Amino acid sequence: MTAAQFESALHIEDVLAREGVFVGTMAGSSMWPLLRHRRDTVVIRPCAARLRAGDVPLYRRGDAYVLHRVVEVLPDSYVICGDNCAELERGVRDEQMVGVLESFYRGERPVSLDSRAYRAYVRAWRALCPLRRAWKRMRARAGRAARSLAKGRS
Q1: Domains of the chain
Q2: What is the DSSP string of 121-138?
């Protein structure tokens, strides 16, 4: 699974419009280590303004909901990437935005996006993003080469 997806039979936009907040569990590994598959609960609020680099919006990609981090803000779109992804998503537009991560729960413990620990995580993630992406690409190439070699031996 490449995108953080949500376990919900309800349309999240309907819940946000009615309640002003959506609280749910996400599924997928694209935002690991920040968010753990089917274990952490996210709190999403409607977007109040244009997003900034480092924000974690919930947006629509076709019929799927995706929760990834803004890497770069462009005049008419965003460049977005999951914390555990190598590929950048370019051209994500404001009209695709459903809401933005306000906080999350790690088990019973609330985690504020205003906390020092979270801000340090975001700074480190953004600084290491190019190295992390290069490492993931190298691993993928090495895996393809190993499978190709193994296929040739059989």
Answers
A1: 5-153 (2.10.109.10)
A2: HHHHHHHHHHHHHHHHHH
